[in-house]
Design goal:
With 336 residues, this protein is of the alpha/beta class. The protein has one domain: Cytosolic phospholipase A2 catalytic domain, CATH 3.40.1090. It has eleven helices and eight strands. Strands 1, 2, 3, 4, 5, 6, 7 and 8 form an eight-stranded mixed β-sheet that branches. The N terminus and C terminus are likely disordered.
Length: 336
């Protein structure tokens, strides 16, 4: 089914209706969880899911974009423990080791090592067989269509959703080449509603510095850079190699450093994503929002999982009063 925006949207049959005669007031609202894009900051989604579960809230429907598709897909497949263990095991060295350079001409990173890790954990898992409805959002190369992946191998859908343009190779599914869904729907609230959610919780992990962007008027085009802004790119540092010229560098980025090609692309992508996010959430606002923003975490700081998961838990705790205004507080079960 195609949306009014011309998006290529693949949907699955809705869940079975309630039994005839069941009182409407007795039905618990279906909870949808929209997990947003944000690269490494997405490890905070794990903390969000843990904290929600500790408070008796388990989503009936999950939709994810980019890293949100990674964590959301693993959660829907019952693999949250595995993705958490993987995230906590990452170090700077391991993250860099997984960034294998691509020579295909389509990207900077081939992604073979990441693909292997996903395929090993999610081998044979099909989206339509998951115990709860799940969709991963991707963008079609060229057409710009928003694509909802709801059938087929889960690992393939996840890879398509996180394929950052220019950094990771696009993923071919059928006759379409797909890349990161953050270009069209960074926090997929609309997907949760389309899949039947009555109450949607959105998890926004956009950087707060971008969210508070401002206009800088009357900037002189001939202004001389300050002393802090005269440093060269990462590639100028002693001992720099080919990876310093091509791969994103966020671990040791300092104020005034000129970006290399990958860092410049990712910064541009972040700005575009932020503007799209504001527009989409204004047009279809969620019922509750968990804002897990973190200015001190870069897009490729995947080694900070412990910190990020804790931030996700803290952000969820702050949002719980608003969530419980609309969702009945879970009853405490006591053994007789």
């Amino acid at each position: 089914m195609s949306s009014d925006r011309g998006a290529a949207v693949f949907t699955q049959p809705s869940e079975a209706k309630e039994e005839d005669g069941a009182p409407e007031k007795a039905r618990r609202p279906k909870i949808g969880l929209a997990l947003g894009a944000g690269a490494a900051r997405g490890w905070s989604h794990i903390g969000v899911l843990r904290e929600l579960a500790d408070n008796g809230i388990r989503p009936d429907i999950v939709a994810g974009t980019s890293i949100g598709a990674v964590v959301g897909g693993c959660y829907a497949a019952g693999k949250l423990d595995q993705i958490e263990n993987f995230a906590r095991s990452l170090t700077k060295r391991r993250v860099f080791a997984m960034m294998d350079l691509s020579f295909s001409g389509m990207s900077l990173i081939g992604g073979d090592r990441l693909r292997g890790a996903l395929d090993q954990e999610l081998s044979g898992v099909m989206i339509e067989d998951l115990p709860i409805p799940f969709a991963a959002v991707a963008t079609e190369v060229g057409a710009g269509h928003e694509v909802w992946l709801q059938h087929g191998p889960l690992s393939l859908a996840i890879r398509a959703s996180y394929a950052l343009p220019g950094v990771f190779e696009p993923v071919r599914i059928g006759d379409r080449y797909l890349f990161d869904g953050a270009l069209v729907n960074p926090v997929p609230v609309t997907v949760c509603r389309a899949l039947g959610a009555d109450f949607v919780i959105a998890v926004n992990i956009a950087a707060d510095t971008m969210y508070r962007s401002k206009v800088i008027p009357n900037q002189s085009a001939s202004a001389q850079p300050s002393e802090a802004g005269t440093k060269g790119p990462f590639a100028d540092r002693p001992g720099a190699g080919i990876e310093d010229r091509l791969l994103p560098r966020y671990f040791d980025r300092r104020p005034g450093d000129a970006p290399n090609v990958a860092t410049a692309m990712i910064d541009a992508f972040n700005i575009i994503q932020d503007r799209i996010l504001r527009s989409r959430l204004a047009g279809d606002p969620p019922d509750a929002t968990i804002n897990a923003r973190m200015d001190d975490v870069g897009m490729f700081d995947f080694h900070k999982a412990d910190y990020l998961i804790a931030l996700g838990r803290a952000a969820t705790k702050r949002a719980l009063p608003n969530v419980f205004q609309h969702i009945p507080v879970p009853e405490t079960v006591t053994e007789s």
